[in-house]
Amino acid sequence: MAAGSAPGWAVGALGVVCLLLLSDFISCDPQVIYGAVGNNVTLHVLKEKPFKEIVWKRGKDKVVEWDDKSDVKAFLSFKDRVHLDTDSGNLTIFHLTASDEDMYSIESPSVRNNSMFTLKVIEPLKELVLSCTLNGGNITMSCTLMEDPDRHEDLVQYSWDCPPTIQCQGGSVSSEVYVSRESDLSQEVHCTVSNPLFKRIASVTLSTCVPQAPVVW
Ligand SMILES: *[C@@H]1O[C@H](CO)[C@@H](O)[C@H](O)[C@H]1NC(C)=O
Ligand SMILES: *[C@@H]1O[C@H](CO)[C@@H](O)[C@H](O)[C@H]1NC(C)=O
Ligand SMILES: *[C@@H]1O[C@H](CO)[C@@H](O)[C@H](O)[C@H]1NC(C)=O
Ligand SMILES: *[C@@H]1O[C@H](CO)[C@@H](O)[C@H](O)[C@H]1NC(C)=O
């Protein structure tokens, strides 16, 4: 397979092929795959006939190459870090690092669709803090992720879980809600922060948000 000799051309051709195939209702939108830092991820395609040759690429660079007359060959940073299943075409990348994040594609006559993947490498969410303050008649709750702004902040979602008897109202940002001080303060409110692979939950009991009444004997 001549792949790799004219990488710029090959990438351009891929785009053209996708356009041509659109008339067959074949999707060329890259499939987004999420992998966790330090973990593994498998890119999987559907074959139309048994594989005789496979090239997996990251952008324009080869990751692995194989044909039925030679062994699997892995390139550059992927040496010792990938496994190609020549039966399924599955490419597994181990020990993911942030720098593995890129576009990947398979080139093989056995795959009619040019399968493209966007790999996003995600880090576990760190500590989550739910704080609350009393502002006049409102208790404002704020969920804060204790970490440097994540590379994938756009993938982080906040959601709130309030008991049915409590009316939580959304604040100006999704990481904030407020409830009336007159609510049933024995109830707990939960904040969930998630990205496509990880999730964290923090809880607060509303009574801890207001000054405690002095104890009268
Ligand atoms: C890939 O990672 C998952 C999750 O940690 C683990 O269960 C699985 O065994 C790993 N697969 C391989 C082939 O190492
Ligand atoms: C190929 O990868 C897919 C997706 O991870 C998995 O469901 C399937 O079992 C794999 N097949 C083989 C033969 O490893
Ligand atoms: C090609 O893509 C179409 C539409 O997404 C899908 O139905 C079909 O199974 C794919 N074929 C192969 C061989 O991947
Ligand atoms: C509570 O918050 C709502 C919405 O921001 C506001 O309309 C209301 O005046 C607040 N009440 C008090 C007592 O601060």
Write structural notes for this entry.
This protein folds into two domains: 9-122, Immunoglobulin-like (Sandwich); 128-209, Immunoglobulins (Immunoglobulin-like). With 217 residues, the chain is mainly β. A hairpin with an 8-residue loop joins β8 and β9 (116-122). The strands form four sheets. Strands 1-9-8-3-4-5 form a six-stranded mixed β-sheet, with no helix packed on it. Strands 10-11-14-13 form a four-stranded antiparallel β-sheet, with no helix packed on it. The chain has a three-stranded antiparallel β-sheet with strand order 2-7-6, with no helix packed on it. It is built from one helix and 16 strands. Bound molecules: 2-acetamido-2-deoxy-beta-D-glucopyranose (4 copies). Residues 39-40, 92 line the site of one 2-acetamido-2-deoxy-beta-D-glucopyranose.
What is the CATH superfamily classification of the largest domain? Answer: Immunoglobulins
Q: What general form does the structure show?
A: elongated
Sheet with most strands: strand arrangement: 1-9-8-3-4-5
Supply the helix-strand structural class: mainly beta
Poorly predicted sequence stretches spanning 5 or more consecutive residues: 1-17, 19-26
Q: Can you tell me the CATH topology of the largest domain?
A: Immunoglobulin-like
- Count of distinct structural domains: 2
Please summarize the sheet with the most strands.
6 strands, mixed
Please state the average pLDDT score. Answer: 85
The ordered H/E elements are HEEEEEEEEEEEEEEEE
Please work out how many helical segments DSSP would assign: 1
In the CATH scheme, the class of the largest domain would be Mainly Beta
CATH architecture of the largest domain: Sandwich
Strand fraction band? 35-45%
How far apart, in Å, are the first and last alpha carbons? Answer: 87 Å
Ions, cofactors and other ligands present here are:
2-acetamido-2-deoxy-beta-D-glucopyranose
What radius of gyration results from the CA coordinates?
Answer: 25 Å
Q: What proportion of the residues is helical, as a percent range?
A: under 10%
